[in-house]
Design goal:
The protein is an alpha/beta fold. The protein has eleven helices and eleven strands. The relative contact order is 0.09.
């Protein structure tokens, strides 16, 4: 066996020169990926250590292929209990929300199973929704996708499945549920809080007069908040709603003027649907200075098939920037 890293890198480069497509940057990423894989093999891993890596990669690759032609479609992930029966008010509310979301051309992503998941897919219809199924001994995937198998990816592993939920969605709606639902909520909120995923609408939806999320929020405030395990501003990362219209209003308001953001080398880039006038930019910069950002400056226009985006950028000087970004988005969306 050749264990010379320099020779290995040359062999990989020769292989990619023969078979790879795309830009040089993409080829470098592939080279690093293959190099990491072979170096791992040199560490003599056991088969049971390799299998979950290979399976997870296949699951992620299959899900990326499923969503590829829907890259620019707005998508909402719905979480909730697999045990919710068809005649339950929460099931009906999920169907209603998904139907209304589909009317705005929003795609729905669910776990592809029964209960709330089936309600989300049925409401939007299989042509407007996707399932990220999970292999479980006690739960079958929904029959919604029997005639649309290309809208269903089945996972063995939670980590690759949850990665896909958050990677592909621009909003999260959570109905009442059990351990799995709580896992999805807290991983999502922790990932937003720490900047591992971008901030997005995170709606906890209950029926009118429902107590589930009210009690959840009360516990978060009274226990996590008062005991200083989270900051008060961390409560801004989710919203409580009690109707499908209210949930959709929260999502639409979040994307009223704001479109997306990304961070590159400690610089924050906002992509907006509007070009700010002098007064609006001044107001945003007054906020930025107070919250340890540099002033925003206009960078450029970007043109897409869905419209034009205006890019603004500033320097981030605060390690706790996520709540400040959330507040800045609210300021932008409140501009008239």
């Amino acid at each position: 066996m050749i264990t010379d890293k320099q020779h290995l890198e040359k062999d990989i480069s020769d292989l990619l020169n023969k078979y790879a497509t795309g830009t040089l940057d993409k080829q470098q990423l592939l080279k690093d990926f293959i190099l990491s894989t072979v170096l791992y093999n040199w560490e003599d891993p056991e088969p049971e250590e390799i299998i979950p890596l290979k399976e997870g990669l296949d699951e992620i690759r299959n899900s990326i292929a499923m969503f590829k032609k829907f890259k620019y479609n707005f998508k909402i992930s719905i979480f909730g209990s697999a045990r919710t029966p068809i005649d339950d008010d929460l099931y009906k509310l999920t169907v209603e929300f998904s139907q209304k979301a589909a009317q705005y051309d929003f795609k729905i992503i669910t776990g592809g199973g029964p209960g709330i998941m089936a309600a989300g897919n049925i409401g939007a219809g299989p042509e407007n929704s996707f399932g990220l199924g999970l292999k479980l001994p006690f739960e079958n995937n929904s029959e919604v996708f029997d005639n649309h198998p290309h809208h269903l990816t089945v996972f063995k592993h939670f980590y690759s499945r949850k990665l896909t939920f958050y990677r592909e969605s621009q909003a999260i709606v959570v109905m009442p549920g059990g351990y799995g639902t709580m896992d999805e909520i807290f991983q999502g909120l922790a990932s937003i809080q720490t900047g591992k995923i971008n901030i997005r609408p995170f709606v906890l939806l209950d029926k009118p007069g429902g107590q589930f999320w009210y009690k959840f929020n009360e516990w978060v405030e009274e226990t996590l908040g008062k005991d200083k395990y989270i900051d008060e501003d961390d409560l801004r990362f989710y919203s409580l709603c009690y109707s499908s219209d209210d949930a959709l209003a929260v999502i639409k308001q979040f994307y009223k003027h704001f479109f997306s953001y990304f961070i590159l080398d400690n610089r924050l880039f906002f992509q907006l649907k509007i070009k700010l006038n002098d007064q609006q930019l001044s107001e945003l910069n007054n906020f930025a200075i107070v919250h340890n950002f540099s002033e925003f400056c206009y960078i450029r226009e970007r043109y897409f098939n869905f419209g034009t985006l205006h890019v603004y950028s500033c320097q981030i000087n605060d390690s706790h920037y996520c709540t400040s970004i959330r507040k800045a988005i609210d300021i932008i969306n409140n501009f008239q």
